[in-house]
């Protein structure tokens, strides 16, 4: 889960708010965001024990398969030219066919029951680490049906790995790209949508952003809202997220796919079953395959050329909330009020809005903004309400206005 940095702007006098404070939580660069229930219920313990047994069985099968493979092929720590690719049931491969080595990184993992880094998010009696593994396995299975690709996984059991170890593994197998798979959650349990984080620098940005946009298209076709491809920088100007930073140091582009929010009902409905998780993995695979021009069941002698725009300067994240935020209300002939809500976002885009009728004590759900600088909607009001509106960009920074 990415770090959520919610900019909470105080209620201003008149049309727009001006004062603001910053709230931060710990995130996926080592830990997670949001309220985490560490006290384990009986249901959680039962789920953990069951999953560990399944992971152990899967590990035994994987080890047996790897041992059998080692008898016929030496594992190379560095990439060398190859002339053979394997597709289940596929035709003979062309000589010297190009191959991509894709490393899938199921987020989190580890047998501890109190380690936030290992568990990931905990919502609905479910651990993020189990769900990301299911998505990765489905993605691996789907990608194996395409030619010109080899798929590796940083983990295929419930085991702990540091971010440095994950990147080192990607280098050891000659990885061309690492895709880190995650699920999201937010501090106020109100955000929804899919987003991708990539490096802010040069080729690493171009490759990550290209693949990320292609995956997001698949996820939005499934019904998720796209929050876009984004970057984040640390205090020293380097990529903030450890897996992206560690991979970049080894020359490997990496991206983090946040499929949706475990703590939001509409997103959860697209990941709450085995079938739904497998669907996410297949869509991730389809997005990646589309970007590289891979064909299912076929090995191409040459992959299509990809036009990538390499940024000359770092692609910096948006660090400021929406501007020029104001609203007005107009009584209509039917007694309702027409609300016009305005907001400008020059660095990214306005993403959501919500409102309160009790001076900010409670808020309704987040509504999608649209494409322009204003949204209009009607409300049934007495005229005595204390209205507060909040306008958010896709970096989850917000501005409040009341009056």
Summary of the model, kept short:
The chain has 403 residues and is of the alpha/beta class. It folds into 2 domains: 42-292, Aminopeptidase; 320-402, Sandwich (Immunoglobulin-like).
Written overview of the protein:
Helix 4 runs parallel beside helix 6 (242-249) and helix 5 packs across helix 8 (274-292). The model is unreliable at 2-48 and 68-86 (pLDDT under 50). This protein has helices at 42-72, 116-119, 128-143, 163-172, 202-221, 242-249, 265-268, 274-292; strands spanning 5-9, 20-24, 100-106, 122-123, 126-127, 149-153, 177-184, 194-198, 226-230, 254-261, 323-331, 337-344, 350-356, 367-368, 374-379, 388-393, 398-402. The strands form five sheets. Strands 6-3-7-10-8-9 form a six-stranded mixed beta sheet, with helices on both faces. Strands 14-13-16-17 form a four-stranded antiparallel beta sheet, with no helix packed on it. Strand 4 and strand 5 (126-127) form a beta hairpin. The protein has 403 residues and is an alpha/beta fold. Helices cover 28% and strands 24% of the residues. It has eight helices and 17 strands. The protein has two domains: 42-292, Zn-dependent exopeptidases (Aminopeptidase, 3-Layer(aba) Sandwich), CATH 3.40.630; 320-402, Immunoglobulins (Immunoglobulin-like), CATH 2.60.40. The two termini are 36 Å apart.
| Helix-strand string | EEHEHEEHEHEEHEHEHHEEEEEEE
Low-confidence stretches: 2-48, 68-86
Q: Which CATH C-level class of the largest domain is it?
A: Alpha Beta
Helix content: 25-40%
Coarse shape: elongated
The count of domains is: 2
- How many helices? The count is 8
CATH topology of the largest domain: Aminopeptidase
Biggest pleated sheet: 6 strands, mixed
CATH architecture type of the largest domain:
3-Layer(aba) Sandwich
Strand residue percentage: 15-25%
Structural class: alpha/beta
Strand arrangement in the largest pleated sheet:
6-3-7-10-8-9
What's the Cα radius of gyration?
Answer: 23 Å
Mean pLDDT across the residues is 82
Q: Kindly state the number of beta strands.
A: 17
């Amino acid at each position: 889960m990415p770090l959520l940095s919610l900019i909470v702007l105080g209620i201003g006098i008149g049309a727009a708010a001006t004062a603001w404070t910053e709230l931060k939580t710990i995130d996926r660069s080592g830990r997670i965001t949001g309220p985490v229930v560490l006290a384990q219920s009986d249901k959680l313990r039962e789920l953990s024990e069951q999953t560990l047994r399944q992971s152990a069985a899967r590990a035994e099968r994987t080890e047996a398969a790897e041992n059998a493979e080692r008898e016929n092929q030496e594992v190379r720590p560095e990439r060398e030219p190859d002339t053979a690719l394997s597709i289940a049931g596929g035709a003979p491969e062309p000589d010297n066919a190009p191959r991509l080595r894709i490393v899938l990184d199921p987020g989190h993992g580890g047998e501890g029951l109190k380690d936030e880094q290992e568990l990931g998010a905990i919502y609905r009696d479910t651990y993020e680490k189990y769900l990301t593994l299911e998505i990765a396995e489905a993605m691996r299975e789907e990608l194996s049906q395409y030619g010109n690709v080899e798929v590796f996984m940083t983990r295929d059991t419930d085991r702990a790995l540091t971010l440095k170890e994950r990147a080192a593994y990607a280098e050891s197998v000659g990885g061309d790209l690492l895709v880190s798979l995650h699920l999201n959650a937010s501090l106020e349990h109100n955000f929804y949508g899919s987003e991708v984080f990539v490096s802010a620098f040069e080729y690493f940005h171009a490759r990550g952003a290209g693949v990320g946009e292609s995956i997001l298209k698949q996820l939005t076709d499934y019904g998720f809202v796209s929050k876009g491809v984004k970057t984040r920088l640390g205090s020293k100007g380097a990529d903030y997220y450890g897996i992206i930073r560690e991979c970049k140091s080894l020359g490997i582009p990496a991206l983090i796919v946040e499929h949706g929010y475990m703590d939001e009902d509409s997103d959860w409905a697209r990941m709450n079953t085995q079938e739904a998780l497998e669907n996410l993995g297949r869509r991730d695979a389809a997005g990646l395959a589309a970007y590289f021009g891979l064909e299912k069941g076929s090995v191409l002698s040459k992959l299509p050329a990809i036009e990538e725009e390499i940024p000359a300067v770092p692609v910096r994240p948006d660090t400021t909330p929406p501007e020029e935020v104001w609203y007005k209300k107009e009584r209509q002939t039917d007694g309702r009020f027409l609300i016009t809500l305005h907001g400008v976002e020059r660095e990214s885009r306005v993403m959501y809005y919500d409102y309160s009728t009790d001076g900010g004590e409670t808020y309704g759900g987040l509504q999608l903004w649209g494409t322009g600088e204003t949204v209009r909607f009607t409300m049934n009001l007495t005229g005595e309400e204390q209205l507060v509106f909040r306008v958010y960009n896709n970096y989850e920074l917000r501005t409040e206005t009341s009056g």
